[in-house]
Specification:
Blueprint lengths: L4 E5 L4 H13 L4 E6 L7 E4 L4 H14 L3 E6 L20 H26 L6 E6 L15 H24 L3 E7 L23 H13 L8 E4 L8
Parallel strand pairs: 1-2, 1-4, 2-3, 4-5, 5-6, 6-7
């Protein structure tokens, strides 16, 4: 039995591609829509450059073109690129790099929540929306410091998701929000930092997609945000 539409934002990234592939293979959905800057060659594609206007336009397109949206995975984020490296010391902070990290890790997912609300809130069908957060965004779990920009961006994302969960409990009661920590996944994002990761703690993207799907299936529509890891365990805020 099919169950409406599934949407993957960031469908050309390692985890996003795996989630789209998993959902396509499951045959559970009428459509799996990938949204990305470039063609992920997996699913129906809607291109978006993640500017404010482009995200709003994509949200309107989803509202007009798609039926019931019952799964959304927001798989965007930035840890490093040619101009940005995780900071080990406060002396390494640069304002432009911090703003780029906050844009990718907080602002873009927040704007997607805004753009998706008219689609996921309509009708009586339940919808689970998961955004990729990270354990390093936990203030209570932070024992090592460092990675200022990335930690701050993911902590801020968690606050955005918490705000949205409170608001959606009034306006979109059939929507469940998840802040999902995938663990260290074998993708380009983690590649420079894998040397000290035990083999059993470095997860294949397909495994993470399977875990996320199972967690979304078990979601309880209680109006609360779950900050949860790949194993289904809650993470301290």
């Amino acid at each position: 039995m099919t169950r409406g539409t599934a949407v993957v934002i960031g469908a050309n990234g390692g985890i996003g591609r795996a989630v789209a592939t998993h959902w396509l293979a499951s045959g559970r959905f009428d459509a799996v829509v990938g949204i990305s800057r470039c063609d992920p060659r997996l699913a129906e594609l809607h291109a978006c450059n993640y500017s404010d206007d482009a995200i709003a336009t994509s949200g309107r397109w989803l509202a007009e073109q798609q039926g019931r949206v019952e799964r959304v995975a927001i798989c965007t984020g930035l840890l490093h690129d040619a101009a940005l490296k995780p900071e080990k010391r406060i002396e390494e902070l640069r304002g432009d790099a911090m703003l780029a990290s906050l844009r990718a890790n907080t602002v873009v997912p927040a704007l997607w929540l805004q753009a998706l609300l008219p689609t996921v809130a309509r009708g009586d069908a339940p919808c689970v929306v998961a955004a990729l957060s990270a354990r390093v965004g936990s203030i209570g779990d932070n024992r090592l410091g460092g990675w200022y920009s990335y930690r701050a961006g993911k902590a801020a994302l968690n606050m955005v998701l918490q705000n949205a969960a409170i608001e959606f409990a009034r306006r979109a009661r059939r929507v469940k929000l998840l802040a999902f920590h995938p663990g260290t996944t074998d993708t380009a994002l983690s590649k420079p930092f894998q040397s000290n990761v035990p083999a059993e703690k470095l997860f294949a993207p397909a495994f993470v997609a399977q875990q996320l799907d199972a967690i979304m299936d078990r979601a309880v529509f209680d109006g609360a945000l779950d900050f949860i890891d790949w194993g289904g365990q809650p993470i301290v805020w």
